[in-house]
Amino acid sequence: MLEQLQEGLEKIVRNLRNEGKITESNISETLRSVRRSLLEADVNYKVVKEFINNVQEKAIGVTVTKSLNPGQQVIKIFHDELTKLLGAKQYHLKTADMPPTVILLAGLQGCGKTTFAAKLAHLLKKQNHKPLLVPVDIYRPAAVKQLEVLGKQIDVPVFSEKSKVVKRAVEAVNYARKQHLDTIIIDTAGRLHVDDQMMKELEALKKALKPQNILFVVDGMTGQDAVNTASAFNERLGFDAIILTKMDSDTRGGAALSIVNVTGKPIMYIGTGEKPENIEPFYPDRIANRILGMGDVVSLVEKVQAAVDADQAAILEKKLRKQQFTLEDYLDQLKQIKKMGPVENILEMIPGFSRMKMKKIKVDDKEFTRAEVIIQSMTREERRNPSLINGSRRKRIAKGSGTQSSDVNRLLNQYWQLVKMSKQMGKLKLPGNLSAFGM
């Protein structure tokens, strides 16, 4: 996420840290580099101009504090201005005085509305809400079926009575009240472009439902087109907040930095993968940290807490202390790490990881899948006592898992390194020790 922007600004920030004194000359040079990085990341040129002017104005007359050198002080200005650009504070869903709360999703076709509807329902369910998914896209073939499949996966009911768009939505509200469901997520139809028919339908839904939240879902990969579409929707419909999807695929990040400034609306959530759990609340200050290569430890801790069973972690810690950690335990840890989403997204929350990316050190999620298959190809006895695995057993395991003997050797080496580390440290706090898994 935001890889191109991160790489450009991280390099600038690293050079700036070495500056003992901030002058008009080195600030001008730095800001030229920042301007280039922002434009290459597809940030709106007006937004770039305003950002550069604000930083320059504050940096030239900077008062250096005792705890920061001049370079660090300018980095702080960068951080503050980026946070401001991204919306300053997190935006929360508004709730109805009398349930159900109605959430209306709008956006173009292919932006990820239906997938996001399921992700939001999954998140709300984990927060002890009782959501209802309502598909009202009567134009796209299999649109209703897609939401029904997703609803089944996350165990959330889907209201799909066959009736006209507005009538179906109103009936869904009445159904939710009778079933004591507190939140309704309306998945509306999209088009390939903004058209009058689409807007009239959304206006009719808005008038009939009076939703507490109208969320505009936009594909983050479309860059400036996303910003232009959001502006058109806002002028006609008026929405409360923005959802940026497919941000795990967007290396540039221009939409995230432009859309708040241009529309005046906050970003509420970002989609970071295809699975139901791949959704993150949008915290402007945390995203600013990531862009500047400072990591995001708070979000990382929250992800670990959400994905990991505390009781299992305590049991694992005891096993490590007593040197009873087996490959079955190792497999359990791999599965828990995978729950947290794409590994590279997790690692970029660790301060300094962006420097590893600058060195082209890549982390492949397929390694986790390969490790799982190898361990599952072992006998229970081998998983519980890896010392039994000799040359012939390794060949059998490699054949059974469709891998090479070298892959089996690598996995076993990682396992023994973890065992050795636990002996040296006496106590290894888990979960989340990614370096122990060969990261």
Main sheet: which strands, in order across? 2-3-1-4-5-6-7
CATH class of the largest domain: Alpha Beta
Task: Please tell me the total number of domains.
Answer: 3
Query: How many alpha or pi helices?
Result: 20
Radius of gyration: 25 Å
* Helix content percent band: 55-70%
Whole-Å distance between the termini?
A: 19 Å
Poorly predicted runs are 427-439
Second-tier CATH architecture of the largest domain? 3-Layer(aba) Sandwich
Write up this protein.
The structure is a single chain. The chain is of the alpha/beta class and 439 residues long. The chain folds into three domains: 3-85, Four Helix Bundle (Hemerythrin (Met), subunit A), CATH 1.20.120.140; 101-293, Rossmann fold (3-Layer(aba) Sandwich), CATH 3.40.50; 300-437, Orthogonal Bundle (434 Repressor (Amino-terminal Domain)), CATH 1.10.260. Helix content is 56%, strand content 8%. Strands 2-3-1-4-5-6-7 form a seven-stranded mixed sheet, sandwiched between helices. The longest helix has 21 residues, at 405-425. It is flat.
